[in-house]
Amino acid sequence: MADAALFEFLHTEMVAELWAHDPDPSPGGQKMSLSVLEGMGFRVGQALGERLPRETLAFREELDVLKFLCKDLWVAVFQKQIDSLRTNHQGTYVLQDNSFPLLVRMASGLQYLEEAPKFLAFTCGLLRGTLSTLGIKSLVTASVAALPACKFQVVIQKA
Amino acid sequence: MCQVYLWNYPLYIRSVPTENELQFHYMLHTSLDVVDEKISAMGKALVDQRELYLGLLYPTEDYKVYGYVTNSKVKFVMVVDSSNTALRDNEIRSMFRKLHSSYTDVMCNPFYTPGDRIQSRAFDSMVTAMMIQVC
């Protein structure tokens, strides 16, 4: 119980800290902080990608890996599963979470819409890192239409 | 002797007898081919994470080579002396499980960048303890 709250507080502080040190309000400076957050998420994702699938059987295809992300990874980090997973079967997947735990405390509606991307950067990195350990190169972006629902779009890069 | 491979380059190599080390290295490299064969065969057949195989009987002495692949495509390869018949399947499996869990710990270490050679002393001591137990 307390674990979930601890991670949320830590995450909130991380975002606040990275934004506070950024005296440059122009888009260039903002992008730096977002990529730092994403980088942090990436490293954590790499470690989780090693630790979580320990006892699970080998993944036979990409879809299995994505399902693992939606179920096991989300449950381990946010104590709930992703609400929906859609794919175009050509390497693009959309993960939709209707009440994303890191956003659910902020608002429910359109307030704070511009601030939302900051709070999604770490999670994008997390997804990308886990996928990279499991052998899949990808690009993850997030979008918010109305808090606290958000969508993560995963595009698999074919080498 | 054991090795940890990531995408076919070695992350960690350790052996007990220091003579014929080059022989061991050669054997381990060739065993990677067999590992890859097994992985591609696995895709169709049963989905089992662990793989175990006997192979590479060398002309002078007999060695048994065991392999193990994780979900993140990291391969562990172990070479043991065939004269050591006390080693059973379960023991090999438990050794690989220990290796896997120590490797996971190494991955979670924030000072370790994935893809580097493993320099963790904890990992070293775990492998040493395991090898002492066997030899």
TrEMBL record, chain A:
A GO cellular component entry from the record: cis-Golgi network
Main localization (coarse): endoplasmic reticulum
Coiled-coil spans in chain: none
Domain of life: Eukaryota
Role this protein plays: May play a role in vesicular transport during the biogenesis of melanosomes.
Family stated for the protein in its record: Belongs to the TRAPP small subunits family. BET3 subfamily.
Protein name: Trafficking protein particle complex subunit 6A
Organism of derivation: Sus scrofa (Pig)
From TrEMBL, chain B:
Keyword vocabulary terms for this entry: Cytoplasm, Endoplasmic reticulum, ER-Golgi transport, Golgi apparatus, Transport
Coiled coil: none
UniProt entry tagged with the keyword Lipid biosynthesis: no
PANTHER family tied to this protein: TRAFFICKING PROTEIN PARTICLE COMPLEX SUBUNIT 2
Protein name, entry field: Trafficking protein particle complex subunit 2-like protein
Pfam family, one: Sedlin_N
Species for this entry: Sus scrofa (Pig)
GO biological process, one term: endoplasmic reticulum to Golgi vesicle-mediated transport
Major localization listed first in the record, in broad terms: cytoplasm
